Structures are given as structure tokens and as C-alpha cells.
């Protein structure tokens, strides 16, 4: 499978040997340290022939929501790369810089920068929503370069969340099962069945349960295909293929309002945007690639 | 790969169509509802020729740490199965019942009961450590049969954590790389390299990073093999195989103090417990099965 959006991060992340506060302070203070400010989780991009992320120097910290919540993403060629939430787009913005959502940026940035953006967005969102200790309710503080937070009262350590979710292309006798989300705006838009892995289940069990719950089908032969970070806010998409035991399906009517079978020609047309009846996710989504792989694989 | 410990849960979990408070109340009130009390996360087991989990009726709720935190795990043949944390082992304990840790129980319980126990342990631990809102610091309440919590002040919804972790058997020219954790008590005990997936990375990227960080090796051809829920407290173990680019390794000295290559005969002996120099994880761990599969697979 091709390189998936958000999975090309080239930074060397801080590892166990670097868990000393002084090390983070020294990195952050390096004159060539680069800072990516996120405003309402939107990232700055310099548009043009080759759009790329706009980085700032430490001066941008004047606009930080909280200077204690600067996250060291990693280093590249010895240069530290950091991210910080800002209260407003910094006024020193270079001409042509715009703040945009990661969904829009994923398809125009180089793979490497989309990967960095995924890490930055997930981490900044996590810090923003974990300023208090879930154990005792008291304030927490970022430690270890923002890699975790510590409770100021009970000393509990809190780690960034990564939420594993399965997404599965279900097939039966040469056709693929695509489902439509229950929402007034879905129109012809359909995708693979997906859902979060729950506590106490394997990937394969999550696939079987989600397909049964959402579209009433029994599947077997669950096969892992690929994975992708999906920073909305911090999902690990786990892409699978599975085989239905029959063509019987029944949308749950709550999350899914329609589940139908499509043959390879129909899905191929939709992937190329030339179907009048079926719309599928864009190439930044792993669902797109699960479908493309299935269309091209005539086994 | 054989059925892995903790992955045989037969319960039908509550799904979207059942997210009404009345439904949960009615389930909990059914006279044949079964309750699993956990005391300090230990579960009650009736030992004997065929050890099995000991279930209570609703009377056990007298000993609940918090009666609002009863978790509906799911149903089996229409019978609701619930879990609750208790302040002490209930005095109505049937003769011979003991409270034991899930690690010890995994190898003696039937697969189905070990699977239920995994879900119960992860969920009860999550509720215990999420009594406050990470966003605003105010108290949270269990909703939807314990499937999530809601903040009493800011109304934020909180979902149970599942932490994806990769674990990888690294091979190079017919030998497997096994690492020893840096701790005075590890002795001859070695296992596969493992670590949590971080925000903004795929499974494959996590494998490459962990191996590089912990044992200084570069790997390629990362291949998914199997997954397993590991309820300590709520990990999703993602088992992989990968190929090193060379035999060069260097333990990081922090998490790992030794990393060495072993051939198939050495690993086979250790799996059967007849090696004087190498000790490997028991059969409840996915690492055991990654090694066994590699030993038996001479490709």
C-alpha cells in the first residue's frame, strides 16, 4: 500500500535517554530551534507552488496560550522542532501565511510535513484538554518536554492518548460493503465500516463486533492491511479486510442508515470521482486505499 | 496463531441502539443479572478441577465502592453481566472463592472467562482513575451503563482508554533479537522489543522507532502478525515481525540493558522451559506466540 497521509514524520522523537528536564530546556533554548504555532488547532502554511509549514523562532512564545505547554516534537539534523498553542495568529506572520485545518493541509503538504503536523495537532489538543488530573481533579503540569503531564497534588503521571480504531473493507463474492453514516448531509457518500477498539478486545474482535453492530453482518478471515495516524484528535486507524458469511446486511439505523454491496467497477468509478451514485473518501483517508487495493486485487 | 489469552470474550457488548439510560437500568434490575466484584482489581475465582469466575447477584452492590460506577459488560443469552469495584471481598463469598490477579487467572480460566475478566479489569480501573474531568477538574459521573463518563460541570464526555503498544520479533539471518529489561531482577529473562504507539505515528513507524530507541537497530519489512488485549491496565498489544538491516545492536542502557541474537534451537528450548541461559515469557503473553511462530516457521 502507498504511503498514507500523516505517516511520513521524519523527526527523531525524544527517547528514554533524554528524559532529563535540563536536556529539554537546552533544546528549547537553541538559537536555531523551530516553533510551529497552532491557533485553534490550525497550522500555518505558506502557500505557493510548493506549500509548506511556516515555522517561527522563539519569539512566537510571546503569543503562547501557556508557555509551560511547549511540546518538543523531535529533532531533525540536530535542529529541535517544537509546537505551541497560541492565542492568536502571530502578527509577525510572513506574507502569504494562512492558518488552516490539518484535513485541508494533508493533501497539499509534503508527506514529511503532514506527518509532523499530525504529531503536533494530536499533542497540542491533548495538552489543551488535560490541564487537570483525572484521578484527583487538581491541576497538572507538562513535563519531559511535553511528552507527559504530572499532577501537582497527587503526582500521578498522565500520558498522551492514542485511540485505536478499526476500519474494514468487508467483501462477499466480488462485492464490497459500503455504509452511509446516519446524517442528513451524507448524500451518496459511503465508506468502510469503522469504530474504536474497546477495552478487552483484540483488533480482530473489534472488527467482528463493529460490523455486527453497525450493519448486522457476520465476518470471518479478518486480515490486517495497513495503519495510519489520524489526528482528529488522536486516532490510530487500523485498516483491515474481512469476508462476510453471507450477503445479508441490516443497517443499525442509528450510526448507519444504509449498507449496500458494490462491485469493483462501481467502486473504481467512485475512486476516480466519475460515479453519479457513489461518493467515497478522498486519498488522505485509509478507507480510500483499502478500496483501491481491493479494486486492483482481483483474487 | 492460537487463541491468545484475554481474547475470548463471548459477551454481546451494549451498542449504539441501547444508549438509553432506562435500558441500562432495566438490565441491571433483572433478577438473573450477574455481578463480578473486583477487589483492588483482583477477581473472585472458585478453584477446583475446573476453576471459574464467581458471580454474585445484586446483593453484592452493598459492598460497592460507588454504586453509580457499575459497568454493564454485556449480555450472554439475554443475561446481563456487570462488574463493580468493592471495598472488601463480600462476606457472602461461597466456600473456596479467592480473589486473584488477572495475570495468575489468565492461564487457569477458560478463554471465555479470561476475556470477560480483561474487559472488567480494564473498565473498573479506568473508572477508578477518571473520577474527575481532565478538561476542567470537576467531578465526572458514569453514564450509558459505565461505557463513558460525563463531566458534571462542563459536560465533556470521557471515553475509556485503550493504549496501543507494538511488540516485535526482530530477525536477522535466522536469529531473533531478544532484549532484557534494565532491572536488577530480570536475570535470564528476555523478550521481544515493545513500546507504546505515540501520537502521530502508524504501527509500522512505532515498530521502527522503538527498535531504534531501545536496541539501536534499523528494521524493515514490518509485518503484522496478531493482536491481544492486555488489561494492565488497558493495552492493545499489536504483535509484529520485522527484519533487521544488520546484526549490529546496542542496548539503550535505560530501558534495556542487554540485546542479543538467539537461534531457533535456543528459543525453542526456552519456550519449553529447558534452557539454563534463556527465560522467555509464559504462554499468556503474545511475545511467547511470536517466538513460537518464528521457531516453527523456517522460511
Secondary structure category of chain A: alpha+beta
Share of helix among residues of chain A? 10-25%
| String of helices and strands of chain A | HEEEEEEHHEEEEEEHEEEHH
- Which regions of chain A contain 5 or more consecutive residues with pLDDT less than 50? none
Radius of gyration of chain A: 22 Å
Major sheet summary line of chain A: 6 strands, mixed
Between the first and last Cα atoms of chain A, what is the distance in angstroms? Answer: 16 Å
Number of strands of chain A: 15
How large is the count of helical segments of chain A? 6
Q: What is the average of the pLDDT values of chain A?
A: 94
Indicate the multimeric state. Answer: homodimer
Shape of chain A: globular
**Protein chain pair with the most extensive contact, residues per chain:** A-B, 63 and 63 residues
Estimate the strand proportion of chain A. 25-35%
What do you see in this structure?
Two copies of one chain form a homodimer. Chain A is α+β, with helices and mostly antiparallel strands. Helices cover 21% and strands 30% of the residues of chain A. Chain A has six helices and 15 strands. Chain A has helices at 21-29, 102-105, 111-128, 203-215, 264-271, 286-296; strands at 34-38, 43-46, 52-53, 71-76, 79-85, 97-100, 140-143, 148-151, 157-158, 163-172, 175-181, 193-196, 219-230, 235-244, 256-263.
